[in-house]
Specification:
Largest sheet: 5 strands, parallel
Strand order of the largest sheet: 7-6-5-11-12
CATH topology of the largest domain: Rossmann fold
Order of helices and strands: HEEHHEEHEHEHHHHHHEHEEEHEHEHH
Radius of gyration: 29 Å
Structural class: alpha/beta
CATH class of the largest domain: Alpha Beta
Number of domains: 3
Shape: elongated
Number of strands: 12
Length: 462
């Protein structure tokens, strides 16, 4: 569009110089409104005082001049103070051919002075496989990273893997009680799918225990907090944070299964990462930072020993940072992860968190907490918020098994893409390898169109 505006500006300047002996530094262009004919609109109002003409007269004269002397304008119309220009199809075709002839058309090469930006996406939990929502997150985050890179920035693509916490212990405990030694190989399941099966099983057994307690006379709210499986999972988390060797060994084994499953899904989606951060590493730094903030009076302790921050004067509320038993929450690890990334990459000029809009409040709190801690780089943090993906029946819930598996979605789109391509004769005469490559690209394009046709929140990162 900039090239088209530049071409038209030269012709308009020639016209103004010839007819009005007038030189203008800048013209205001905008896309033509959908209810009018045209592609590009020149705003005439800034020129009226200098040319001492009416909008209609100036528009008619200038439009006629562009048709006669420009090889890009096919037609025009004047509406009030707007000159709507219709551009020849040949111009767009030539433009597209030029784009196709250059592998990296429009890309800017990063140099030593280019800013370095970190883009976080995916960031899964290791108690379940990637699902429909993760697909949108990964493709959106990866696309933003590649666009920023194409605009001349140095980009670090990263994720934080949520590999610890009560939800992880739930999968571990269910496998320990009911798994009978089952493995990905023995079950013929991807590792992430196998672990996810036991996360759902935990919820089923937990709800059964609650129902039994309620039937025996225990109040629902009490049963939900005192069910034996939940208490056991909470105790397992305490043991994990205390480096219990048996718990840690089980954790490492099951997480190893999950990572292999994730890698297979990422390969299908055609995305990659430059670095990885793990909550199991960064939560300790977060706890250290929180204790330092407590000593400085930024945070406070409640009667049960839990640590909080009061953000009511900032229009928010009180936020938990460490539980009463000393275990960490998501905010703990996010604080530690942010600091660790800056320590690892002091050249970073901005960090983008690709996370659904249900976490808008979380990131408002996170950025504000980091600012109150005195980190100057907190102003360079951005939350790329987008609409969550729901099913017709409502929000997906992994613990209840009501999710659409990412692998199933990608595989289904592969079959659909292959059927469409074959129907239109696009695969005839190609080798099996070439057919597979085309179908893979087509299925990813289809999924991107599906997800990106609805806009996410607009953001400026630099």
């Amino acid at each position: 569009m900039d090239k088209l505006e530049h071409t038209l500006s030269k012709s308009i300047l020639t016209f103004l110089k010839s007819d009005f002996d007038l030189s203008v530094d800048h013209f205001e262009f905008q896309l033509t409104r959908k209810d009018f004919e045209g592609d590009l609109t020149l705003v005439l109002f800034p020129l009226l005082k200098q040319t001492r003409t009416s909008p209609q007269v100036l528009g008619e004269k200038l439009g006629a001049y562009l048709i006669e002397h420009s090889d890009v304008v096919e037609n025009f119309n004047v509406v009030s103070g707007f000159l709507n220009l219709s551009i020849f199809d040949a111009y767009y075709l030539a433009f597209l051919k030029q784009m196709l002839s250059e592998d990296e058309y429009g890309h800017k090469k990063a140099n030593s002075d280019a800013p370095t930006l970190m883009v976080e996406y995916s960031s899964p939990n290791t108690n379940k496989p990637l699902h429909l929502g993760h697909v949108r997150n990964n493709l959106l985050g990866y696309s933003v990273a590649e666009i920023l890179k194409a605009n001349g920035n140095n980009v670090i693509k990263t994720q934080i893997i949520n590999d610890r916490g009560i939800h992880i212990c739930k999968s571990m405990l269910a496998w320990q009680h009911y798994g009978s030694g089952e493995t990905p190989d023995s079950s013929n399941l991807k590792g992430d799918q196998l672990v996810g099966k036991y996360y759902v099983l935990f919820e089923t057994k937990y709800r059964t225990q609650i129902a039994k307690m309620v039937s025996d006379g225990t109040a629902q709210a009490v049963a939900e907090k005192q069910a034996p499986l939940l208490l056991e999972a909470q105790q397992m988390l305490v043991k994990w944070e205390a480096n219990d060797p048996e718990v840690r060994a089980l954790w490492e084994k099951m997480n190893g299964w999950v990572y292999k499953g994730f890698d297979a899904t990422y390969k299908k989606l055609g995305i990659d990462f430059d670095s990885y951060y793990y909550e199991s590493n960064t939560y300790l730094l977060g706890k250290t930072i929180i204790n330092e903030g407590l000593s400085k009076g930024i945070f406070f302790t409640k009667e049960d020993g839990s640590i909080w921050i009061d953000l009511t004067e900032d229009g928010l509320d009180e936020k938990l940072l460490l539980r009463s038993d000393g275990t960490a929450v998501y905010m703990t690890q996010d604080i530690g992860t942010a600091q660790q990334r800056v320590e690892d990459h002091p050249e970073i000029k901005g960090m983008v968190y690709t996370v659904g809009n249900e976490q808008d409040y979380h990131f408002k709190v996170l950025f504000l907490v980091l600012k109150k801690l005195g980190y100057s780089w907190s102003d360079s943090l951005h939350h790329l918020s987008y609409g969550m993906v729901d099913l017709p029946s409502g929000k997906m819930k992994s613990r209840e098994g009501t999710v659409v598996d990412a692998d199933d979605l990608v595989d289904q789109m592969k079959n659909t893409a292959a059927e469409i391509a074959s129907k239109h004769g696009k695969l005839g005469g190609l080798s099996e390898e070439d057919r597979e490559a085309i179908v893979h690209k087509d299925r990813i394009r289809c999924i991107k169109v599906l997800y990106f046709k609805s806009r996410s929140k607009k953001e400026n990162f630099v």
